[in-house]
Design goal:
With 518 residues, the protein is α+β, with helices and mostly antiparallel strands. Among the domains are: 112 residues, no CATH class; 131 residues, no CATH class. The strands form 3 sheets. Strands 1, 2, 3, 4 and 6 form a 5-stranded antiparallel beta sheet that branches. Strands 5-10-9-7 form a 4-stranded mixed beta sheet. Helix 4 packs parallel to helix 6, helix 9 runs antiparallel to helix 11 and helix 15 runs antiparallel to helix 16. The protein starts with a helix and ends with a helix.
């Protein structure tokens, strides 16, 4: 009954924001066109369809807001105007009561906050659809932030996901372009994403990995600061971490007053992004200004601070290699190499003509070079590439969707900090150095070091394995005889089938002749 009421509420909100008009306008059929004229009552809605969709999702609640945020990253699936509008969705969720937060902490950690901490702020400092954050002080004097999962989130999510699956099935039947949109696959992807966010141990592990990647032993500690995880006070529903102090990266005047060099900060953001992607293959994939701060402490002035690790991306060595070569080919304007890489990697069908794909990529990218970042929209470049890719049946790689989203975030922060920053020129030396280290003697030595342990185990066994292989009886003649026997048996079976078919045909012909004679 509750599910039915929820479904009725969704239908009511959809009609309120005229989403029926949005669906009908995408169906190219005379009946749909007639229905569209009826629901419009002779005139179209006042607001654009993207605005109406965003407002509808905000009215439907936090889970639908999250879904819209995820959908905004799939610019390969939805029209550009919808993607840009959905990117404006924000979690505007009031905090749940402080006594409930204390109960959640006690249920997760086995003691009330007053016992676990010297001080625990009852009022949350931040509240979102999945969790809210409280500041606290541990008994040893360390300042921490305690992230508490909203109670009852799992049941709410399961109900709304069930309805989303129903709606995805309806869209799949009604919308002609649904084969490319893949609504059921998108909902399934969102299901995984949400359940991952509900496990705060997973987020804590992401935080710990990112902190290790920028630790003192890596030599990158001056680029990015990541909070330390307090593991003894972390469970699937409570995540306790070191409290970080700084200025939001979007507050440029405060950063300047604190003495931060804004131009260096912009270049450092690009370096952090490419370091995470190509060196580590593990990157913070939610780099909007609300999650990125800058330290204003004298000893760490100007360092980036990362927060909220619910969404991270990872790339294989194969992905990193092809991406780096693609970026370098773009920077060098070697569009033929870009086309070759797409074909070699299997991102486009092997039958694709190199020169045709090369010409399409050139037409998209060439107008954007040699411009400052203020005049370049990487979002527009990506959208045009997506539109071009459909002509060549390019398969959008799932592992690259988060990377595209993060690149757009980096673009936005770079434009806000330094409108004259040239992303291409800033990134090119880094990628060239990365490729040199990977392909040159340094890269060879690194790979040998990585494989040394495995080789140390295999080398002593090689003489025995070679002897066993050489002393093993030759089975090739036996296999050839068996294949010959099978071929003869197959030919005999084929002759039997042909004879049987001939007999049946003759029998049917005789029967027809007898019946006709009567």
């Amino acid at each position: 009954m509750l599910t039915l009421f929820r479904l009725v509420g969704i239908v009511f909100i959809a009609l309120r924001y005229r989403l029926d008009e949005l669906v009908l306008s995408s169906i190219k059929h005379p009946v749909a066109y007639s229905l569209l004229r009826i629901v419009r009552f002779g005139r179209p809605p006042r607001d654009d369809r993207g605005v109406r969709l965003r407002l509808a999702l905000e009215s439907l609640g936090p889970i639908f807001v999250k879904f819209g945020q995820v959908l905004s990253t799939r610019r390969d699936l939805i029209p550009p105007d919808l993607a840009l509008e959905l990117a404006k969705l924000q979690d505007r969720v009031p905090p749940f009561p402080s006594d409930k937060a204390a109960q959640c902490v006690e249920a997760a950690l086995g003691a009330p906050p007053s016992t676990l901490f010297r001080h625990f702020d009852k009022d949350p400092v931040a509240s979102a659809s999945i969790a809210q954050v409280h500041f606290a002080v541990m008994h040893d004097g360390r300042d921490v932030a305690v992230k508490v999962l909203r109670p009852g989130m799992l049941s709410i999510i399961e109900k709304d996901l069930a309805l989303m699956r129903i709606l995805a099935g309806v869209i799949e039947r009604l919308v002609p372009d649904s084969r490319r949109l893949k609504p059921r696959e998108v909902v399934a992807e969102f299901d995984i994403y949400l359940h991952d966010e509900l496990d705060l141990v997973r987020e804590a592990a992401n935080c710990s990995q990112l902190r290790r990647n920028f630790g003192p032993e890596t030599g990158r500690q001056n680029l990015l600061m990541v909070p330390e995880v307090i593991w003894e006070y972390t469970t699937t529903t409570v995540f306790t971490m070191e409290r970080m102090r700084g200025i939001p990266v979007s507050q440029i005047e405060r950063l300047q007053d604190a003495g931060v060099n804004i131009k260096d900060l912009a270049r450092m953001g690009v370096e952090i992004f490419f370091t995470q992607v190509f060196t580590d293959g593990f990157f913070h994939a939610d780099m909007h200004p609300g999650n990125i701060y800058v330290s204003d402490a004298p000893e760490t002035l100007g360092r980036y601070i990362a927060l909220d690790f619910g969404i991270v991306g990872s790339l294989s060595e194969h992905d990193k290699n092809y991406l780096a070569q693609n970026f370098l080919a773009f920077f060098r304007r070697d569009y033929r190499r870009v086309a070759q890489l797409h074909i070699e990697s299997g991102w486009v069908p092997s039958t694709t003509r190199e020169e045709a794909l090369e010409g399409a990529v050139r037409a998209v990218c060439e107008p954007y070079f040699d411009r400052p970042l203020a005049q370049i929209s990487l979002g527009q470049v990506l959208l045009r590439l997506f539109q071009t890719s459909r002509r060549f049946n390019v398969e959008i790689q799932p592992q690259l969707v988060l990377l595209q989203k993060t690149l757009l975030n980096v673009e936005g922060m770079g434009r806000d900090l330094d409108p004259d920053l040239d992303l291409w020129k800033t990134a090119k030396p880094y990628l060239e150095n990365w490729m040199h280290e990977r392909i040159g003697l340094k890269g060879l030595k690194k790979r040998l070091d990585q494989e040394a342990g495995q080789w140390a185990q295999m080398l002593p066994q090689l003489p025995r394995l070679v002897h066993a292989s050489l002393s093993r009886p030759d089975t090739l003649p036996g296999m050839q005889q068996e294949l010959h026997r099978l071929r003869k048996a197959q030919e005999f079976n084929n002759r039997l089938v042909m004879v049987f078919a001939a007999v049946v045909a003759v029998a049917i012909g005789v029967a027809i002749w007898v019946i006709a004679g009567r």
